[in-house]
Amino acid sequence: MSLQTEAEENLRVIRSLMEKATVYRAISAPSALVGGLLAALAGGALVWPLQAAAESAPVFFAVWLGVLVVSASANAWFLRLDAARRGDQFISPGMKMALTALAPAYITAAFATGLAALCLDRYLIAGLYLMLPGIWCVLHGLGLLATGHFAPRSIGRLGWCFLTAGLAITGTCLANPRGFFVAGDPHRAANAVMAVTFGGFHIIYAALTWPRKTAASVNAS
Amino acid sequence: MFDFEKLDKTIHEKGRLGIMTLLATRPSWPFQDLKAELQMSDGNLVTHLRTLHDAGLVAVTREMLDRPQTSYSLTAKGRASFKDYLAILEQIVNAGKSKQ
Fold first, then answer.
1. Which of A138, B44, B51, B89 could form a disulfide with A7 if both were Cys (CB 3.0 to 4.6 A apart)?
2. pLDDT surpasses 80 at A20
């Protein structure tokens, strides 16, 4: 191998290792498990044992905003632990990049949620908030996909799952609003969607990305 | 003709080059993370880290968290040597291109 070829090969190895090392995972497997279990339990409870309470819009908002706050706090806690283990800062350049990428989608989600909450007392769009699960799925998916250039592939796949499911749910609601809002039980449908998507998708993601110890590392520790 | 002697032989070895590259990306790396990222055996990684430590390029920190953890970081000399090594690689590549 000539010196120039060897130098080019070494520079390629350095670039690829640096890219791999600067990958930032905005959602760790333990946080996804906590958030997923919370969403599945909350959604499941509102679909069946607490379905009477679920018909109240304030309960819907309180439960899902509560799940969001607890899941986001758990995520921050796990990210802090992971950063401390690596000897890195909690608010690292990677986290700043992730927050910048996530911001447009999450600000839009907050705006849509606020708008739906403000419209609760308006007769014509009183059921508007029941479309929020689909909109939240779309925007969560877009947020995750926006981190694609520095996130591991699994985050991108999770983003696509949310985006696809969110578009299907929102499309179904818009194509047949009477069916969604009038027939059946729209409150159960909205909470079931939350349990399956925010619950199920995050639990599956946690199971697939959970850090596994290799046999060698178990023997060494 | 490029003077091959300018290349730091301690860094130039593939395994050690990988270690130096990773250490240049963060303030410090735990042993297990380095091992997972580079997919090296314990013995191989320890040997390379010892060589880099003996050359004054890498610092070792041992601390007791929930269990003993050994972390590695670049020393000032290590960071400077890595930068010099990169500059030399670029010179080699550029020299080759200008000949073509």
1. B89
2. no
